[in-house]
Design a protein that fits this description.
The chain has 561 residues and is mainly α. 63% of the residues lie in helices and 3% in strands. Among the domains are: 105 residues, Up-down Bundle (V-type ATP synthase subunit C fold); 68 residues, Rossmann fold (3-Layer(aba) Sandwich); 82 residues, Helicase, Ruva Protein, domain 3 (Orthogonal Bundle), CATH 1.10.8.60; 93 residues, Arc Repressor Mutant, subunit A (Orthogonal Bundle), CATH 1.10.10.
């Protein structure tokens, strides 16, 4: 039965075409080829009800012929724990929890609400009931919903692993294990990027994975994390995670984690008989329903982004809270209220718990909005994302301004990667827009970049993470390199030297050998020789001594060197 249903699953090509569809109606009609009813005329509530029922019908049909009904509990557990998070936060703010609860878990929402409100948690499975009590106590004690979520997430995966072991299916147990390993790897990488201590990591990591959490906490740095996951299914993801810690792309890293889990599920295709095919199909159905819900809801009702809500007046926050609770608005000048249903994404530019403590964010609206939380590091902490953003904005402004700018010069790329972007992505976007207005060629060059970027680059770099903790003499040496680079820009714009070549040139002028240069800059000897060769060629000299003289004449290095 499962093998016959697999070809009807939503494939990547159709999902992409839905995303690119001009209207909600067009996207909805594309689903009919995958066995869905025509949802083009459904309301948002109708979409939610239909997708929930479709999932339930699919699971009920397969459960009739499943060899072990407990397999389905593995896919129901997350909805129970989601409902627990909703109940706890709703109680803290005095809000109605039921409309945000899912009916897809083991327990009916009404039953679960009654158990929770009547303090009858002993009627629930021990792990689940204990976790609810601990999470509620943590939220009341710390006013930090993230800690409450940590407690429930740990309990969820603990119960998942126990259920899988009880069923006795190695494939299912492995599926749960790799989900835990992937979740812990993401946590470790995020913690290292954000400079969190081992206590934070220990509190956030989930036990019961194939890699002990004490080993993850003790790994210490990005290289330790990468080595810990070497030779596992997450080896590639861990390598990208190590890059992400130093500013590489988090998007690529997290995608690699998800791909590793999916690759494990795909191995079920090699098994002709057994529960493997059923487990993989149920996971695919879950992913499909989630994707369809996100695409259609987004196109049907849209998404409202509230930026820097910590700057919103408290009176306005109170009005927003009423909108969130009642789903009703009244336009200026109107006499009647209008029903709305929109997904809310809110952002703050400060620590949210601190904002609550300082009364910059109402406690009740904070709990109401904090369902799924993501801490996004500053742009300078994730410089691997800069090339991706540069390319995105290049295409965006080409289309907007009807231009045909094909690329950025290598020097512009070096500048953008060296600069620390205190204004984050918004500043990067505005700088690129400014460069488009200044440019009249096919390539964006240094001359198109606003002057303030170049003038502040040296100072900003001194505040970058890569100089913190260094001995004073090394910090001064690096700052001197920045001054040399600035002198080069001002006095020798006709040459095309990279920052690396300027560093090597300074050390040549300080009478350092190639081996010493390699050790100081942490680069291999052949690379040093290549840089030296390029420097001699660009200065039109044959010897290192001549290079020193030429560099001083061009004011590329201080006279005292």
């Amino acid at each position: 039965m499962v093998r016959a249903k697999e070809p009807k699953l939503l494939n990547a090509d159709r999902a992409n075409r839905m995303l690119e569809a001009a209207t909600y109606e067009e996207a909805a009609k594309m689903l009919t080829d995958s066995g869905y009813d025509d949802m083009s005329q459904m309301t948002t509530k109708g979409i939610e009800a239909y997708l929930t029922q479709r999932r339930e019908d699919c699971f009920a049909e397969l459960e009739k012929s499943a060899p072990d009904k407990a397999i389905f509990d593995v896919f129901k557990l997350k909805y129970d724990y989601h409902n627990a998070k909703v109940m706890i936060k709703a109680k803290a703010t005095g809000q109605d929890a039921k409309r945000l609860m899912s009916a897809s878990g083991r327990f009916d929402p009404d039953t679960l609400l009654n158990i929770f409100s009547e303090d009858l948690l002993s009627r629930l499975p021990e792990t689940f009931g204990t976790a609810i009590a601990e999470a509620e106590s943590s939220l009341a004690r710390t006013a930090n919903p993230q800690l409450a979520d940590f407690i429930l997430d740990k309990a969820l995966f603990t119960e998942l692993r126990a259920t899988a072991k009880q069923i006795g299916c190695p494939f299912l147990d492995g599926y749960v294990a790799i989900m835990i390993d992937a979740a812990n790897l993401k946590t470790a990488v995020r913690a290292l990027r954000m400079g969190k201590d081992t206590d934070f990591m220990a509190a956030a990591l989930i036990p019961s994975g194939s890699i002990d959490i004490s080993r993850i906490s003790a790994a210490g740095d990005k290289d330790g994390i990468a080595a810990l996951y070497a030779s596992s299914r997450l080896e590639k993801a861990a390598a990208l995670g190590a890059e992400a810690v130093s500013g590489g792309s988090m998007t690529a890293f997290e995608l690699a984690c998800d791909n590793a889990v999916n690759a494990y599920l795909c191995s079920a295709k090699l098994v002709s008989y057994g529960p493997e095919a059923l487990i993989a199909y149920l996971a695919a159905v879950e992913s499909e329903i989630t994707a369809v819900r996100m695409i259609l809801t987004g196109k049907r009702e849209g998404i409202l982004f509230l930026d820097e809500i910590n700057s919103m007046e408290l009176t306005a926050q109170a009005k927003l809270l009423r909108v969130l609770e009642d789903n009703c608005i009244r336009r200026i000048g109107a006499k009647e209220e209008k029903q709305v249903n929109v997904r809310i994404i809110a952002a703050v530019n400060e620590d949210p718990e601190s904002c609550v403590e300082r009364n910059k964010i109402r406690e009740d609206i904070f709990y109401r909005l904090c369902v799924l939380r993501y801490d996004i590091p500053e742009l300078y902490r994730r410089k691997g994302d800069i090339p991706l953003l540069m390319e995105y904005f290049r295409k965006h402004y080409n289309k907007k301004f009807h231009k045909q700018i094909m690329a950025y010069s290598s020097e512009v790329q070096d500048i953008f990667l060296a600069y620390n972007w205190p204004g984050n992505v918004r500043e990067l976007k505005n700088v690129i827009e400014s460069a488009f207005h200044n440019n009249h060629t096919a390539i964006l060059t240094r001359n198109d970049i606003p002057n303030y970027i170049l003038s502040r680059l040296a100072v900003d770099t001194m505040h970058a993470e890569d100089v913190r903790g260094l001995p004073l003499h090394e910090m001064l040496a690096r700052y001197e390199v920045l001054l040399i680079e600035d002198a080069y820009r001002r006095n020798s714009g006709s040459l095309t030297k990279t920052a690396a070549e300027l560093q090597v040139l300074r050390l040549i002028c300080a009478d350092r050998s190639n081996a010493e240069i390699g050790a100081i800059l942490d680069i291999k000897l052949p690379t040093v020789k290549t840089h030296v060769s390029h420097i001699l060629e660009k200065l039109d000299v044959k010897r290192r001594a001549e290079a020193k003289t030429a560099a001083k004449k061009l004011h590329l290095v201080p006279e005292e060197l």
